[in-house]
Amino acid sequence: MFRASKVNRRPDRLSTYFLSNSAVLAGIALSGILYNVGLTAGPFFEGQLAQCLIAVMAKEKTVGDMVNLAGLYLAVILLVQASRCLKRFWVRRLANNTARSMRRVLYRNLVYQNPAVLGLDEAGSLMTKAIGDVDACAEGIRKFTTEIFDTGVVMIAYLGMLWYYDARLTLLACLFTPLAYLLAQRLKRPITRSSAAYKNSVSRLNGMALDRVTNALTYRVFGCEAQRDEAYTSQLAQVEKNAVVSSAWENAMQPLYNVIAMTGVLFVLIRGAQNVLGQGWAVWDIAAFTTYLACFSRLALKSSHAAKLFNAVQKARVSWQRIQPQLQPVSVPEAQLDTFTAPASLSVEKLSFAYPHQPPLFSNVSFRAQAGEIIGITGPLACGKSTFGRLFLGEQDYTGRIFINGLDLAEQNNAQLSQLVAYAGHDPQLLSDTIAENITLGEAFDCQPWLTAVALSEEVNALPRGIQTFIGAQGSRLSGGQQARLALARTLARSRPLIILDDPFSAVDPATEAEILQQLRMLAQDRIVFLISHRLTHFPDFDQILWLSQEKVQVSSHEMMLKTNSAYAQLFEKQQRKEVKNDESH
Ligand SMILES: Nc1ncnc2c1ncn2[C@@H]1O[C@H](COP(=O)(O)OP(=O)(O)OP(=O)(O)O)[C@@H](O)[C@H]1O
């Protein structure tokens, strides 16, 4: 169940992630200001200690005064460091919350996207790449937030201190800091470019690794392993090259920023000494000189960090730009409830479909069906049987209308559609999880009746871990027939008015097919079933037959089809003869 939080409303805006963490931000602000303003206590106490030492040597103060001062210094530093720990904790929490929110939005967007888009983009690798970007973004947010305080606030505090001691000297000595920023601005482009090139090459490499694992068998069978190896190695070399360039741009700049920002120290030493001698713009003692020098060097160091922060933000921006399009708001159901209670009804009116720039696959399909009916769908090879079934999943636009239980399918969103239609396609699409989890998908119900319905319970119960058996990636530890039956169990377990089964028995032997069909008849008494198949063995038992072809679309009973549709009659009789021959040969 997903709550309609701020993040769900505008997940494509970076500010959303900050706004939805206002309490955490308040914690960061409080501890951050305390820590960073407290940092100026360091130079102040160092100056006071230097002055005190001189006074002790001149016998104007005692060693006890010095120890008291050092004790106070220690207490203040402890307080400052405690604030630092708190600030780090809150910043980490902000990054974790952001990463979690982004991952959740990403996951939902991928899962609720049009399945056709998922098919094209390989959802798995898309997700892997996107998660890498989410992590980079969250890390960017963490660094940015940290540096806003550890660099921004602390620099203001140090500057205030310097200004207090000698405003004119501060202006002169700090002139070099903007120069370091200017340089950072100029180098923005090559740093962004090299970072983007590196990230893209890593993404491509990840995609190739995933492709090699997924299609390992195909590459082996077709003898293209060496070719794939070569392509992978060359991409790996490219990644290494890009990593070196990107890291060189990032790291080589730091010493340069440091040198530029520290140049002002020359003025501090000369004019500061003149101040102590009473010949400068201000009148200083040793404490003031020590404090000013310590403050300035820390400020210079911090300003060079600011340039580094800028690079980190640039990197995070590249990642953000890549994932932002995948973080669009989506409408998601409040809860996945089984809403179907009434007996099913279906009305298909003048349904026509053509893929873009292609002639119509079928035109003007019209028929009605009532609860308990099984409709066999067949036709010549590649006539559009699977496409017809998938139209009910809202994958493609069609002309004509489809009503399920009186609801116009075209007006339903993906979530509503999922409540009306259950589907099992060619590809079982099994999860790398247990048998039970593949049926329940996280819901709490008994999966035994569904295993029985697909004639799988005996085989599963014979396994040492029964329904808790892990089936491996894409069900690789099951046979093809077992995979198909498991996918079928998952589909049947969903109480939906329309069940679409696309060639569900291609990997199942005829006896098991007959057993499952018998079960299906009982289970689907209040539902409508589409059974898409080339194999017409059980079509005589079905309530209606839909014949699909470019030339002719026909809906009627099996008997009528035999009399009026010669193509159907020929196909059926040919299969009958083959089955008789097979029986005789056994
Ligand atoms: N996404 C697509 N874009 C364009 N054409 C497609 C697409 N998917 C399928 N086709 C084409 O549409 C036609 C029908 O495909 P479909 O898979 O629906 O037929 P089918 O009757 O189920 O096939 P089969 O007899 O192999 O089971 C085929 O010519 C196929 O190449």
Layout of helices and strands:
Blueprint: H1 6-9, H2 14-19, H3 22-38, H4 41-57, H5 63-112, H6 115-121, H7 123-165, H8 167-173, H9 176-186, H10 188-214, H11 216-221, H12 225-262, H13 265-276, H14 286-323, E1 345-353, E2 362-370, E3 374-378, H15 385-391, E4 399-404, E5 407-408, H16 414-420, E6 421-424, H17 435-440, H18 448-453, H19 457-461, H20 480-492, E7 498-502, H21 510-523, E8 528-532, E9 544-547, E10 554-556, H22 558-564, H23 566-585
Parallel strand pairs: 3-8, 3-9, 6-7, 7-8
Antiparallel strand pairs: 1-2, 1-4, 4-5, 9-10
Helix pairs in contact: 3-5, 3-7, 4-5, 4-14, 5-7, 7-8, 7-10, 7-14, 8-13, 9-12, 9-14, 10-12, 10-14, 12-14, 13-14, 22-23
Bound molecules: adenosine-5'-triphosphate.
Adenosine-5'-triphosphate binds at residues 355, 361, 381-387.
